Amino acid sequence: MPLRMRVHDREPIGAALRRFKKLLERSGMKRELRAHEYYEKPCDARRRKDAARKKAIRKAASLRKEK
């Protein structure tokens, strides 16, 4: 999926760069690039995903407990 962004006339380059960074972040491309930066063995990927799932469950349980 190609990302497109138009730079408006007389728009400062800093503002255009900031909009572009937000666009990359929202599209998930930044996360995907970081994930593919190094090879991750399938067993390590499963272990990482399982740990993230357990962390989310613990966080949800602690939030429910506080209420």
* Proportion of residues in β-strands: under 5%
Instruction: Please give the share of residues in helix.
Output: over 70%
Major beta sheet, specifics?
A: none
Number of helices: 3
Spans of at least 5 consecutive residues with low confidence: none
The shape is: flat
Number of domains: 2
The oligomeric state is: single chain
Question: SSE order, as H and E?
Answer: HHH
Taking all Cα atoms into account, the compactness measure Rg is: 19 Å
Gap between N and C termini: 42 Å
What class would the helix/strand composition place it in? mainly alpha
User: What's the average pLDDT?
Assistant: 92
Write down how many β-strands occur, each being a DSSP E stretch of 2 or more residues.
0
Structure summarized in a few sentences:
The protein folds into 2 domains: 1-36; 39-67.
Report what the structure shows.
By secondary structure, the protein is mostly helical. It folds into 2 domains: 1-36; 39-67. The protein contains 3 helices and no strands. It has helices spanning 13-27, 29-35, 42-66. The longest helix is centred in the last third of the chain and has 25 residues, at 42-66. The N and C termini lie far apart (42 Å).
